[in-house]
């Protein structure tokens, strides 16, 4: 009798083990299948501008990872080991082009898509710096070029997610309409600034596309890249221009040292002219980056409106 009971206990124990194994395997298979179904393509972007662009077009269809943090200066940014991993492990890599990401160009060109690739050559800004002709990468201040860049991003996302083409195209059309509205608003605001006051003085040459689109002259002591030094003669030359044209306000940028503009103010004061430096939290121009997430200016549209309003309020 005891032997029969022991045998029954043993069989029950084995059955319990088999059932436990089968249940665990099924649960694991379900989890793996679910993870696979829930996984999204990885899109790596270089800047906050492109991060916003992809979020507008693809919303939650992709996982976006950004290389250069919002608020950082892309001209000076040096890629970290984890950035190289983001480049290698993604399904789609988008970057500005026009040498904006100067220290990462080789890695980006080997795998990525430049959103500026379709720009007409006669629309790309060029200027002289240190005796050489260079390309101006700050195309986002020309809203028409920014729209072209957005179309390239949309095409790339559709290639990645062909079954989402309808949604992406709908988001694109809606966004292009919003950009047209922002452009119209900006033109109306800048046109209200008297022509004799329409001078935009900034730390580095980031607003030449803006100058061309909105008919406002831009002056900066530093060249296109913030990587170059600002010579005292350049500061003095800019100060002479401010004094000559009686420019009442000059602007700091969110990604450059505001002390540079204070130094320019002192140079003007030595020449007998007092100029206001527009700076401080919420009162800086965005040039090479959007604001960090959650702050005013953390999308392209809010950034553009912020800049235009700041210029209008201080130059009109």
From TrEMBL:
Residues of the signal peptide: 1-27
InterPro entries: AdhesinB (IPR006129), Bact_metal-bind_prot9 (IPR050492), Lipoprotein_PsaA-like (IPR006128), ZnuA-like (IPR006127)
UniProt xrefs under SUPFAM superfamilies: Helical backbone' metal receptor
GO cellular component annotations of the record: cell envelope
GO terms, biological process: cell adhesion; metal ion transport
PROSITE patterns documented for this protein: PROKAR_LIPOPROTEIN (PS51257)
Main location: other
Keywords: Metal-binding, Signal, Transport
Subcellular localization(s) per the UniProt record: Cell envelope
Source species, domain of life: Bacteria
GO-annotated molecular function: metal ion binding
Annotated family: Belongs to the bacterial solute-binding protein 9 family.
Protein's UniProt name: Periplasmic zinc-binding protein TroA
């Amino acid at each position: 009798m005891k032997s029969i009971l022991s045998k029954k206990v043993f069989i029950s124990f084995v059955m319990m083990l088999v059932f436990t194994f089968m249940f665990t395997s099924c649960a694991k298979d379900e989890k793996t299948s679910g993870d696979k179904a829930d996984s999204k393509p990885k899109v790596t972007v270089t800047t906050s501008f492109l991060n916003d662009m992809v979020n507008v077009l693809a919303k939650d269809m992709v996982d976006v990872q950004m290389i250069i943090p919002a608020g950082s200066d892309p001209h000076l940014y040096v890629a970290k080991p984890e950035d190289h991993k983001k480049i290698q492990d993604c399904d789609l890599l988008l970057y500005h082009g026009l040498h904006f990401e100067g220290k990462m160009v080789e890695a980006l060109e080997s795998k990525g898509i430049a959103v500026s690739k379709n720009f007409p050559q006669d629309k790309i800004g060029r200027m002289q710096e240190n005796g050489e002709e260079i390309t101006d990468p700050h195309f986002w201040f020309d809203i028409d070029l920014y729209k072209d860049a957005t179309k390239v991003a949309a095409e790339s996302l559709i290639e990645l997610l062909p079954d989402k083409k309808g949604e992406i195209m709908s988001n694109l059309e809606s966004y292009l309409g919003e950009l047209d509205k922002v452009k119209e608003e900006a033109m109306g605001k800048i046109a209200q600034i008297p022509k004799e006051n329409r001078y935009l003085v900034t730390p580095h040459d980031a607003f030449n596309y803006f100058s061309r689109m909105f008919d406002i002259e831009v002056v900066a002591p530093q060249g296109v890249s913030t990587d170059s030094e600002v010579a005292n003669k350049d500061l003095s030359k800019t100060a002479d221009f401010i004094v000559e044209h009686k420019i009442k306000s000059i602007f700091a940028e969110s990604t450059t040292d505001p002390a540079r503009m204070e130094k320019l103010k002192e140079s003007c004061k030595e020449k007998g002219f007092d100029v206001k430096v527009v700076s401080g939290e919420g009162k800086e121009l965005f040039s090479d980056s959007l604001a960090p997430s959650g702050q005013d200016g953390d999308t392209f549209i809010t950034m553009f409106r912020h800049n235009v309003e700041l210029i209008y309020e201080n130059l009109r």
